[in-house]
Amino acid sequence: MNKVIKELAKTENISSEELKNKVASGMAVIPLNNARKDIIKKPVAIGEGLTVKVNANIGASPDISSVAGELEKLQVSVQAGADTVMDLTIGEEWEKILSSILKDSPVPVGTVPVYGAICSSKNIYKLNEDDFIRTVEQQALMGVDFMTIHAGVTRAVAEVYDKSDRVGGIVSRGGKLIYRWMKKTGKENPFYNRFDEILEIAARHSVTISLGDGLRPGSIADASDEPQYAELRVLGELTDRCRRAGVMVMIEGPGHVPINKIKENIEKEKEICSGAPFYVLGPLTTDIAAGYDHITAAIGGALAGYFGADFLCYVTPSEHLHLPGLEDVKQGVIASKIAAHSASIARGIGGDKDKRMSQARKNLDWAEMEKYALDGDKIKEARKKFPSMKDGVCTMCGPYCALLED
Prior knowledge:
By secondary structure, the protein is an alpha/beta fold. The chain has 2 domains: 2-346, Radical SAM ThiC family, central domain (TIM Barrel), CATH 3.20.20; 352-400, no CATH class. It is 50% helix and 9% strand. α6 (129-142) runs parallel beside α10 (195-205), α7 packs antiparallel against α11 and α16 packs antiparallel against α17.
């Protein structure tokens, strides 16, 4: 781990000692399973004072399932700049797909163990507590680097939700599965009830726990409501338990949040969870942008990152519509990378590339522009598709380009 910390500290432009202290204090995490130390080529540090990172969700569904297809999504995600990926596969091939992704991924890989549990049984109501915990251990042994554990949806929190008048209901797939299981069985959430066992597994395999937000708002009308914050208070308790057990932990957050409530959401998480790294889905700042939610999420993500969120989960153009394809994945990653980089700059980190890009533009040095652009291929394609009658410039101004020397 010391070698990894040294490499990451150099990337983040801080000292190894500073990064080590951030991890030790719980202000940063480095998702890296013991079994994948020699496989991960691009480890990542997530947390306070570091550049904002981006995750890409991939994974098959019961309708569309292919190992080759998910490996293509992995490749596109990494090429577009994703710092991590999560395999959210639901279906019979989940073990095969996850194994393949873990074998090929040069970046940390996350999962949601409740998905594996339900896919193995095909009937969530037949699962017992042991089945949930067994899946966590199975995935840890497989090499998963970080896991979303929906331990905050307790019976008490579910009662708060039942008394609420939410517009969007429960939109977290993992959260809703746990909610349904508790309602049907009358038992406590097994991830909460046996959290100490999960911590033992995580500590043994060096798995980072990502505490899932099962009651995140799925409508801007529900942002910052009592069910959301009731769960967050439980996550604060679990954060302390993770740290006492020596397990790295980050917190997952909303969701759909209007612009005026983003700062409040970040500050609440940092306060209740004692500064633990915050991992947000978007957030999406409006509910009406179906087909363009990668843009909505980039708007929310840039603001969230500026206000203190540390990790952005991408949202693709296909959000709310269908399983993402390769182009959806690429567009989702790039939109979130723009948001994350914009936030990092605003926090005073990582603006060197922008200066180099500006210098290349001033010099009309297109090769250099390709080098520093988030998507250099886009520049190359545009130069071929839209050639100017004047060498060295683009078709916007042609020979009247302001950057041409007299």
